[in-house]
Amino acid sequence: MTEKYLDCRGMTCPNPVIKTKELLEQGEVAQVTVLVDNPAAKENVGRFLSRSGFTVQVAEEAGTFVLIGRRKEGEPGVARKAATEPAAQKILVLVGTDRMGTGDDVLGEKLIASFISTLKEMGRELWSVVLLNAGVKLSVTGSPVLASLRELEQDGVMILVCGTCLNHFQLLEKKQVGETTNMLDIVSHMQLADKVISLT
């Protein structure tokens, strides 16, 4: 059993939780100290550690939240996984917007970036991501989520980008990731998917 230290200051949600999860999955941990610099990360990391079998203490020092998780007696000290792995299903995520929700566009852009970067947590069940309408703007030069989409593509996730939509926004030459496709292909993939998650 070991003690671990993780500095997540400067990271936006959900990255502190993802980093903490990755650290715990490396091996049994008796104690972990995580540094974050915003209240949302403090709450999210604290809840994750509690669910993973740790007691959590939180202190604030000059704008930095220090979370110390100590393994509960009898707990394995690793991020919990399901006892049995269900058969992988094909999940298709349909993204028809370049921001999430309504009320504040700046916040909406941050939320969609967070959503795309977190998709990898679906694991092997994530089969395809379809970008259409304003969602195609996520695939072009200057998009804040290009790196996340490329990572998904490298991991075998199909990224389908609506060609009609690219043309409409005059962005065809600026596309940097994914396969330019048509509505027939999109509908066919939706038929093949076990589950479709729509974000429009």
From TrEMBL:
MF GO annotations: transferase activity
Superkingdom in the source lineage: Bacteria
Keywords annotated in UniProt: Transferase
CDD domains for the chain: SirA_like_N (cd03421)
Domain UPF0033 span(s) in chain numbering: 4-68
Family: Belongs to the sulfur carrier protein TusA family.
Protein name as catalogued: Sulfurtransferase-like selenium metabolism protein YedF
Source species of the chain: Desulfobacca acetoxidans
